[in-house]
Amino acid sequence: MILIDIEKSLFSSKGVFKLEVSFEIQEKEFLALFGKSGAGKTTILRIIAGLEKPDKGIIRVCDSIYFDSYKNINLPPQKRKVGLVFQNYALFPNMTVYENIAYGMDKRDKEKVYLILKMFKLEGLKDRYPNTLSGGQKQRVALARAIARQPKLLLLDEPLSALDYNLRLTLQNELKNIHKDYGLTTLLVSHDKSEIFKLADRVIFIENGKISKQGSPRDVFIEKNISGKFSFYGIVLDVKKDENVNILTVDVGGNLIEIVCNQEFSIGDEVLVSSKAFNPVIRKIEK
Q: What is the bridge-based pairing of β-strands 56-61 and 2-12?
């Protein structure tokens, strides 16, 4: 079991606010952090990895104490058994794919490197440098390097957000399989509700540095007073008026649908679409 109980003063466009969170992560759980930009999600990952220091609190990963302000313990990043994958990959440009992966190991193991290369379908790229790789290939290398550390906790900071929709779906499936096959404990930061639904066992909603909601993705994201045959999230791309109704074009996971409704919506609104008696019901989601 992993315990995160930390406090840290942060600066935002609205001034200083306090990040104050306390939660546990169970072994082999896939947990997601969700919330607006600036809520403190990435800071939580950086604190766990040892890249930032909290003002006070405790971080315990299984039987190891990574941080304890009361006992003056603060392990450096290299002594923390975590794997961290950034949105921008953070690969070493002067190292080959093979060398990037091997760098993540405490002790270089050639046989294990080749096993990881095979699992991530990178064997043919082992001698290539990052600047010759596509976005999806770079992401695979970053994940492979993090796994090579044999982490007790895998930290993912929006690792797929820069990729196109189809590649993102493919890597989501791979990430889910990697989490299961390696028996990982994973903490993901994501703005993508559909991604969280697909990957996470549990989600923590962070607002202004505090935990506002937590539970299964369905409990956190789906309104309890919505009943029907289906429900899904989307973004309003276009609004057209036709006599007494509005015709909305909504992007749902890369698919475009049109919905006729009487309510007023604006382009960019995040909406929940559901059915009731075979008639779509659409509601704006307040952020």
A: antiparallel
Q: Indicate the residue type of 209.
A: G
Prediction pTM value: 0.78
pLDDT by residue for the chain (287 residues), tens only, comes to: 999 999 999 887 777 889 999 999 999 999 999 998 888 999 999 999 999 999 999 999 999 999 999 999 999 998 999 999 988 888 999 999 999 999 878 788 888 899 889 888 899 999 999 999 988 899 889 989 998 888 999 999 988 877 777 778 788 888 888 899 889 999 999 988 888 988 999 999 999 899 999 999 888 877 555 455 567 778 888 888 887 888 888 888 767 788 888 888 888 888 888 776 556 667 776 65
